[in-house]
Amino acid sequence: MKYYNPSKRQFFKSILFCLALTIISLGITLFILHQFFDRPSLAHYYQRIPYKFIINFLVISCILIINIFWNVQEEAIENDRRKLEIERLVRDAELYNLRQQLQPHFLFNSLNSIIALIGAKPELAKKMTFQLSDFLRGTMRKDDKQLIPLADEIKHLELYLEIEKVRFGHRLKTNFEYDEEVLQTKVPAMIIQPLMENAIKHGLYNIVGNVEINTRIWLENNLLHIEITNPYDTDQFYNKKGTGFGLSSIQRRLFLIYSRTDLLHIHKTENQFTAQIKIPQHD
Predict the structure, then answer these.
(1) What band does 278 get if pLDDT is binned at 50, 70 and 90?
(2) Which candidate, 43, 71, 145, 234, has a CA 20 to 30 Å from the CA of 129?
(3) Is Transmembrane helix tagged as a keyword (predicted)?
């Protein structure tokens, strides 16, 4: 009965099973008693057989019911464990897919820039190719890591910005403001790059002249705040095709990792766009 778990239509079979066990138990008891006592000596026992039948039936039924409930509980626990494992695998697969989408998104832009530079500025094209190689090598090393120190994320982001500065030259200027204490905090790998890519895309593509992108990072109430501010042209911002991929991927990744939908905030003023993410820091 250890693995027996009847369906709703099989409870009648369980009752018959209990009756059969009760009859067998009484039969074995009578057989053993007859080996040691004669029939007249067992007359008193025979008179109480109906009561013993009821008692045996109730005891066996209770054991069966307890066993069934135990099996149901174990099956429910096992099903919950399987469900959590499946959800984890699905979540990890989706996170991996989101991260893999970010690489071609940036890679195609960089390759187009390298192609454009080959004829006019071959040395810059060569430099950008080596920088792109270092960037992708660092990305592949992080594929199996969910959370990394902020210091590593910033180093990886600096590689990305070096490539972008080759593309845009003196037009792109980036500023970082943070305290040393935040460098040991943990962040999802490549969580800042889509924000920066979004800022560069809407800042430099739509504005003539130099563009300054400011990044501010601080820790407050066990939340790491990462805020990136860039200028933008209100007339062209909403008409830009393909916008929103980076922000939507960040929103989805943060939800899959932290199960929260309030970790990405976007704020727009007259000519300034600010994106801020919050990364919970658990002890």
Answers:
(1) very high
(2) 145
(3) yes
CATH number among 3.10.180.10, 3.20.20.70, 3.10.150.10, 3.30.565.10, domain 94-280 = 3.30.565.10
In this prediction, residue 11 has a pLDDT band, given cuts at 50, 70 and 90, of low
